[in-house]
TrEMBL record:
Chain ranges of the TonB-dependent receptor-like beta-barrel domain: 310-673
GO cellular component: cell outer membrane
Pfam families in alphabetical order: Plug, TonB_dep_Rec_b-barrel
Domain of life: Bacteria
Subcellular localization, as worded in the UniProt entry: Cell outer membrane
Gene Ontology terms describing biological process: siderophore transport
Protein name: TonB-dependent siderophore receptor
InterPro entries: Beta-barrel_TonB (IPR000531), Beta-barrel_TonB_sf (IPR036942), Plug_dom (IPR012910), Plug_dom_sf (IPR037066), TonB-dep_rcpt-like (IPR039426), TonB_sidphr_rcpt (IPR010105)
Organism placement in taxonomy: Bacteria, Pseudomonadati, Pseudomonadota, Alphaproteobacteria, Sphingomonadales
Domain (TonB-dependent receptor plug) ranges: 83-183
UniProt cross-references to CDD domains, sorted A to Z: ligand_gated_channel
Cleavable signal peptide: 1-39
Length: 714
């Protein structure tokens, strides 16, 4: 397969015209969703607010509304369980919190959870995350509605999500091969009982402008909800511009008693220039010279160095109550992404003169596809005084990757006085080594309760895993266990402990490595955790946990090869407080103390701190409803990440940083319609900081940004 051609970077007028053309799709979807059912609009033309909506029992059964905290969790084997009653560390970013922070990306959302940082690259293209110091696998760890592994190489639209869940640690029992960093679960908005019609205009202080809509209707036993949006993107960095478009649809149908069918579809398109990051030089006398922080608006690359991705996600589910208390569930899903990317890094530089080299790795036609088939049976029964909640199932996942050979170009550049870099033609898409991963697993999980105060869990998964390409092949058939205990000394407090074995897919060598694109072998990870969950007052959840994770270590070695070598230990304590302290004060606070160390492997790295892991990171965000002024809310937050090593040898470190946010919203009525005006400032102090590092790469954080939006519901 080969694709060739010349790049023609559209002018601002051309991009605006393209934006208008793509917006026709969004507008057409809006008319399609609204027009057939306009007679079902709520009396007075007012749609329910987030505080007024009542969800059906399809997804978020009887969950808390209008809160920073949640009662239920959807991810993993504990789906539809109370968050307080799960013997795991789970964080939920509710729609209320996402709206308060004007969240538009995954990192915007999950930075509220302890130990989450951006890894290796900037946040402009997509959120490349690390949790508890462990990278999130972008092909296995990000899930759609708890099932479909989406290809997380383009930014997922947060506007169409009801909540974002983070299930911390290993999750091999239910999800098979996935990094023990945790599962990030994207829960889509679903049709609700009452009609919803919302429109929103968004923008920021650098020139971003866009709009979206959210429409939900019921047709008897069926329901449809459509979210769509378009935006021109301006993040405030020189020669970095782009656009994004998305449409997300959710359809529910109950054709018969005890049977429900759920269909989800989403298409996402995003193209944006990718800022050039730093590739650190070799160490001199064991020390790497970290470059000085630049103006966050500086870019050493060019506007034609773009990342362009198109993704399509499909998921079909059916749930059938085969007997009272017993449910049979089946699902099939597919995630496909095609991407062109011009990745660039600035290296081989002299800090005295600023002279260096911008290296560009150009690829076109990067195609990835994940497909999943899943079926399980769940139900409850008793053995004497013990109640069992049993889940048995089977899942089959395939992952196809077609990664073209990168065409590499080098250009002279100066750190202090950047020059223009000439545009290059699009390279052919030559795929020398397509690969296919197959993951077949059967699993059983039993949650055993005794009265109201004791719970035990035990699970086992048997997996048949293979990874085959033209140049290599390997297979393994591991069995993995998990167990947990939970006691409830009082009605509002739970104490728990667990042991979980995880199956971890091999990491992929990054573009700067000599073996770029190589997939490393799969491996086994192990996790132990003890913790406590307290709800001292309705609406406020306090959690604390100690964890100990062992896993194989992968890093860029001194010979510039990305290798799997030895093992690493991640040990720490994390804590959080979420919910409402008073009827007018909402809180989201978290922190983590982490000791991540290379335990075995090459002598040069043993005992070293794992790259891109801070000893402490934390966040605090509060929102206050001003009682003296109806409809006014004010908010503020701080987000801290500590000092981190830039490579496995700890030859350099980037300093810690703290950013500050401020926001305000005003809810009012205009001609009987509910309006919400929001303004939210990110990094209002203009702090300069290194947002991401690892594998001797550095990406600087974005400049201070003021986001704003105006939404209406009718």
């Amino acid at each position: 397969m080969a694709r060739t051609g010349n790049r023609v970077r559209p002018s601002r007028v051309g991009r605006t015209q393209a934006f208008k053309q793509n917006s026709v799709m969004v507008a057409s979807a809006s008319l399609l969703a609204c027009s057939p059912v306009s007679a079902q609009t709520a009396p007075g033309g007012a749609a329910p607010s987030s505080d007024e909506e009542t969800s059906g029992d399809i997804v978020v059964t009887a969950d808390r509304l209008g809160s920073f905290s949640a009662d239920f969790v959807q991810a993993g084997t504990f789906r539809d369980s109370r968050l307080r009653d799960t013997p795991l560390t789970v964080a939920v970013m509710t729609r209320e919190l996402l709206d308060a922070q004007e969240a538009r990306s995954l990192i915007d959302a999950v930075r509220n959870t302890p130990g989450v940082t951006q890894a290796q690259i900037n946040t402009v293209i997509y959120s490349n995350l690390s949790i508890r110091g462990i990278p999130v696998n972008n092909f296995a760890n990000v899930r759609w509605n708890g099932i479909l592994p989406v290809v997380n190489l383009v930014e997922q639209p947060i506007e169409s999500k009801d909540r974002i869940e983070v299930l911390k640690g290993a999750a091999g029992l239910y999800y098979g091969f996935a990094n023990p960093s945790g599962i990030v679960n994207l829960v889509t908005k679903r049709p609700i009982d009452g009609p919803v019609t919302r429109f929103e205009i968004i923008g920021n202080s650098h020139g971003t402008i866009g709009g979206s809509f959210d429409v939900s209707r019921r047709f008897g036993s069926a329901g449809l909800r459509v979210n769509a949006g378009s935006a021109i993107l301006e993040p405030g960095v020189r020669a970095v511009e782009g656009e994004r478009h998305f449409v997300t649809a959710a359809f529910d149908w109950r054709p018969a008693e005890g049977l429900e069918i759920l269909l989800d579809a989403e298409t996402v398109y995003k193209t944006i220039s990718e800022p050039t990051e730093f590739a650190l030089p070799a160490a001199a006398n064991g020390v790497i010279a970290i470059p000085p922080l630049q103006s966050p608006s500086k870019n050493l690359g060019a506007e034609w160095m773009q990342a362009k991705g198109w993704e399509r996600n499909l998921l079909a589910r059916a749930n059938y109550e085969v007997a009272p208390g017993w449910r049979l569930a089946a699902a099939i899903g597919d995630s496909f992404l095609s991407r062109d990317r011009d990745y660039s890094s600035f290296g081989s530089y002299d800090l005295a003169t600023g002279n260096g080299i911008v290296a560009v790795a150009m690829t076109s036609g990067n195609d990835y596809r994940n497909t999943i088939y899943r079926g399980d049976l769940s139900g409850a029964f008793h053995t004497g005084p013990l109640e069992h909640n049993l889940l048995v199932g089977v899942s089959y996942t395939t992952r196809d990757s077609r990664v073209p050979t990168a065409v590499r170009r080098s250009f002279a550049q100066n750190l202090y006085d950047p020059v223009a870099i000439p545009q290059q033609p699009t390279p052919p898409a030559i795929v020398p080594n397509p690969s296919r991963i197959e993951d077949l697993g059967v699993y059983a999980f039993d949650r055993i309760t005794y009265g109201e105060w004791f719970q035990a869990t035990i699970g086992y998964r048997k997996t048949d895993y293979s990874d085959v390409s033209r140049t290599s092949a390997y297979a393994l058939k591991p069995g993995t266990f998990s167990w947990g205990l939970m006691v409830k000394p009082v009605s509002w407090a739970n104490l728990y402990g667990n042991y979980i074995e995880g199956l971890e897919p091999g990491a992929i060598a990054q573009q700067i490595a000599n073996n770029a694109g190589e997939i490393l072998p799969a491996a086994l990870s192990k996790q132990k955790e003890v913790g406590a969950k307290l709800e001292p007052m309705r609406g406020l959840l306090l959690t604390a946990a100690y964890f100990h994770i062992t896993r194989p270590s992968s890093y860029l070695n001194a010979q510039n090869f990305f290798v799997q070598d030895g093992g690493a230990v991640y040990e720490g304590v994390e804590f959080s407080a979420t919910g409402e302290v008073t009827p007018n004060l909402s809180l989201m606070a978290s922190g983590i103390v982490l000791d991540a160390t290379q335990e075995s492997g090459a002598a040069a790295v043993v005992g070293k701190r794992i790259e891109n892991t801070a000893k402490f990171s934390g966040s605090l965000f509060v929102e206050y409803r001003v009682p003296q002024i109806a409809g006014v809310r004010v908010s503020g937050g701080l987000f801290h990440v500590g000092r981190r090593a830039v490579n496995a040898l700890n030859q350099g470190h980037v300093p810690g940083y703290t950013t500050f946010d401020l926001g305000m919203s005003y809810t009012f009525r205009l001609r009987g319609n509910r309006m919400i005006a929001r303004v939210y400032g990110e990094n209002i102090a203009g702090t300069r900081y290194w947002a991401a590092t690892g594998s001797s790469l550095l990406a600087q954080g974005l400049p201070a940004t003021v986001k704003f939006s105006l939404s209406t519901a009718f």
